[in-house]
């Protein structure tokens, strides 16, 4: 009761269907090329036009190659999907940031950085990591393609109102501990289904003190514990970030908007269906050892022993470690690494590349490591070059690639070969996620950079 | 995919793994189609076929012992990516029902929107169901949507399952959410007038 989630959700209720879900009004729909074509086809078959085309922003990101974007995409099926989005947006009169458009990038990087995702909004996209936009103080969540079609056709969606959960992290984060580590730590405690059915509000001093970019990383990973979405009440950090961005309100509109945004917080008397508290001091740089993002641990810790796993979960636990080639009870420190990936909607923003650069500056890429540095958008790429980070990468033997989702889910050419171990700043370590047979360790940009220069899993605190 | 749902009695395909994510149901490299057909061929692709495309012996979909239009899966089925392709793959393969003790949110909605019924049962019911299937692959389960009951016909044990009245009506009459929303355009415009002035 009286939570920020209630305030935003309730304002957007068009009607509550008798003995059914809520019809919710949506302020912003983002579309990418993978989960939209069947929605456009459905619209065409029903003879419908988009109800509010100015609410919809589209861009390809999953299939885009991270090199030679000025040339046609080599994979004909990827090319078809990217071309189909361009054709569909033209036919339906929607805004499209195509490949090489300076506004292109990963949707969840572009939305906030262009000022398209704003506090108090309801935001959806056919992509589970839509939870990212919650960092702006918005109710943002991923949906399926049928639901994308619903929003195109009516600007509404039918949803059960989720329960509310507040996760507070209090205290000061230690050296080398980033928003990514906070998220991986929370997931390791919550498991991948621990927040299913809930919408999470993050709070506490450690969360308040995160930068906007850190908050985006934290909210991005909310879906990995099953939650519908996660968000943070907007504050001065949020307003400062948004001010002056391309699509943000300007002039008198800005003042009016900020005055409203300041009201967006949970009441002192707010009651959540569930409250969970963590201590920032308990969090160290994190790594995952298994095949779901909840299977994480502090980098100095050891993988649980079989006896610590409950009976129903033992088959899955064993399957997971067999796939990874790890033993119960062992440490990951010192394991040989083959690939390093820094990028994705989780960690593909400028601060992530600053963090990576801070570790590799003046050092050399380890022999035998293949490393892909993929900015989340052209705007991030521009900032990297403006700050001279590209020169630091180059001097250390790293190549900066072009923006896109890339090796996070390997829909383009950036696939980790079978059996190879990858330290990745992305969001999922599922079997085959980064390519068939690829083995993924999820971590922060600092841990990824430490692996890139040492060739093994290394505690970044030891070289900071 | 629209089809009316009433009572289904079928043998089951057991998948006693927990946290089956949508990347396993349908790997990302198979998401490049621009229509909804053909995904069933790649359902559980990397567990079902090896690199050369040969069926992997021992995986349940390759085991002729098991068949039917009911998939029985471990806790937290469908976590991860929101890809509706996972629901298209399940429906395309021929499953009409998925039984588990817990479903991930987005995937559950995606199943319902494709006229596949997710049935949530207790951990105990699920464990017994796996045992029954193990004991006799030909045992059947009855899923009765009008009465919202699921029955293990080997043991005779039955459980009630939840579904909201609106969605139940949609499934039983082959109606989808867009049909409903399109009929409510006046309410949407009224909301906009009130809130976007």
Question: Notable features of this structure?
Answer:
heterodimer; A: 464 residues; alpha/beta; five-stranded parallel sheet; four-stranded parallel sheet; 32% helix; 16% strand; B: 197 residues; seven-stranded mixed sheet; globular
Provide an overview of this structure:
The complex is a heterodimer of chains A (464) and B (197). Chain A has 464 residues and is of the alpha/beta class. Chain A has helices at residues 4-11, 37-46, 76-92, 107-113, 145-154, 179-190, 205-208, 212-220, 236-242, 251-261, 314-324, 344-347, 350-360, 378-386, 389-395, 445-454, and strands spanning 13-16, 22-25, 28-31, 56-58, 95-96, 122-125, 139-142, 156-159, 163-170, 198-203, 229-231, 274-279, 286-288, 296-298, 339-342, 370-373, 421-424, 439-442. Helices cover 32% and strands 16% of the residues of chain A. Chain A has a five-stranded parallel sheet. Chain A has a four-stranded parallel sheet with strand order 11-10-9-12. In chain A, helix 6 packs parallel to helix 8 (212-220). Chain A is globular and about 55 Å long. The model of chain A has no long low-confidence stretch (mean pLDDT 97). Chain B has helices spanning 22-25, 45-48, 85-93, 105-113, 123-135, 165-173, 177-182, 185-195; strands at residues 7-15, 70-73, 97-100, 117-120, 140-144, 149-152, 157-160. Chain B has a seven-stranded mixed sheet with strand order 4-3-2-1-5-6-7. By secondary structure, chain B is of the alpha/beta class. Chain B is globular. At the A-B interface, helix 2, helix 3, helix 5, strand 8 and helix 11 of A face helix 4, helix 6, helix 7 and helix 8 of B.
């Amino acid at each position: 009761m009286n939570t920020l989630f209630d305030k935003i959700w309730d304002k957007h209720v068009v009607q509550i269907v008798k003995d059914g879900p809520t019809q919710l009004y949506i302020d912003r729909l983002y579309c990418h090329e993978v989960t939209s074509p069947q929605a456009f086809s459905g619209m065409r078959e029903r003879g419908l036009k988009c109800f509010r085309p100015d609410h919809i922003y589209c861009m390809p990101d999953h299939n885009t190659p991270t090199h030679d974007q000025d040339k046609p995409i080599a994979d004909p099926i990827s090319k078809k999907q990217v071309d189909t989005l361009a054709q569909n947006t033209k036919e339906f009169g929607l805004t499209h940031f195509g490949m090489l458009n300076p506004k292109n990038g990963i949707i969840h990087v572009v939305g906030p950085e262009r000022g398209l995702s704003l506090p108090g909004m309801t935001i959806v996209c056919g992509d589970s990591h839509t939870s990212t936009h919650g960092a702006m103080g918005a109710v943002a969540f991923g949906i399926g393609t049928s639901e994308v079609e619903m929003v195109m056709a009516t600007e509404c969606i039918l949803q059960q109102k989720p329960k509310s959960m507040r996760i507070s992290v209090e205290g000061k984060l230690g050296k080398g501990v980033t928003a990514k580590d906070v998220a991986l730590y929370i997931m390791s405690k919550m498991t991948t289904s621990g927040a299913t059915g809930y919408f999470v509000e993050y709070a506490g001093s450690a969360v308040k003190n995160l930068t906007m970019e850190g908050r985006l990383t934290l909210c991005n990973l909310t879906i990995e514990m099953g939650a519908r979405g996660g968000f943070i009440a907007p504050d001065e950090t949020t307003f400062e970030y948004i001010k002056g961005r391309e699509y943000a309100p300007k002039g008198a509109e800005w003042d009016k908007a900020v005055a409203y945004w300041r009201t967006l917080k949970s009441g002192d008397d707010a009651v959540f269906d569930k409250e969970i508290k963590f201590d920032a001091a308990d969090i160290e740089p994190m790594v995952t050892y298994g095949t779901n993002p909840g299977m994480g641990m502090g980098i100095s810790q050891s993988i649980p022993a079989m006896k610590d796993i409950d009976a129903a979960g033992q088959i899955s636990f064993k399957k997971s470690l067999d796939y990874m080639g790890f033993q119960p009870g062992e440490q990951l420190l010192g394991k040989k690494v083959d690939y390093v990936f820094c990028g994705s909607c989780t960690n593909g923003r400028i601060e992530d590349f600053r963090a990576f650069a801070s570790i590799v500056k003046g050092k050399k890429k380890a022999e035998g490591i293949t490393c892909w540095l993929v900015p989340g958008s052209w705007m991030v790429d521009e900032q990297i070059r403006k700050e001279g980070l590209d020169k630091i990468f180059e001097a250390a033997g790293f190549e900066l690639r072009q923006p896109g989702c890339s090796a996070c889910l390997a829909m383009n050419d950036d696939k980790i070969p079978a059996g190879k171990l990858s330290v990745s700043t992305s969001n999922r370590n599922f079997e085959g996620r980064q390519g068939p047979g690829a083995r993924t360790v999820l971590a922060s940009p600092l841990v990824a950079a430490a692996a890139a220069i040492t060739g093994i899993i290394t505690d970044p605190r030891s070289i900071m | 995919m629209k089809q009316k749902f009433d009572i289904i009695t079928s043998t089951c395909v057991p998948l006693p793994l927990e946290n089956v994510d949508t990347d396993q149901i349908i790997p990302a490299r198979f998401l490049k189609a621009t229509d909804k057909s053909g995904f069933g061929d790649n359902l559980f692709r990397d567990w079902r076929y090896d690199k050369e495309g040969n069926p992997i012996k021992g995986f349940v979909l390759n085991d002729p012992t098991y068949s039917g239009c009911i998939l029985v899966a471990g806790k937290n089925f469908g976590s991860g990516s929101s890809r509706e392709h996972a629901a298209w793959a399940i429906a395309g393969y021929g499953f009409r029902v998925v039984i588990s003790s817990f479903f991930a949110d987005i995937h559950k909605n995606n199943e319902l929107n494709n006229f596949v019924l997710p049935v949530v049962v207790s951990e105990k019911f699920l464990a017994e169901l796996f045992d029954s299937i193990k004991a006799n692959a030909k045992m059947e389960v009855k899923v009765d949507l009008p009465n919202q009951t699921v029955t293990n016909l080997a043991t005779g044990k039955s459980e009630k399952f939840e579904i909201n009245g609106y969605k139940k009506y949609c499934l039983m009459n082959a109606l989808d959410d867009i049909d409903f929303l399109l009929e409510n355009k006046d309410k949407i415009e009224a909301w906009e007038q009130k809130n976007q002035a």
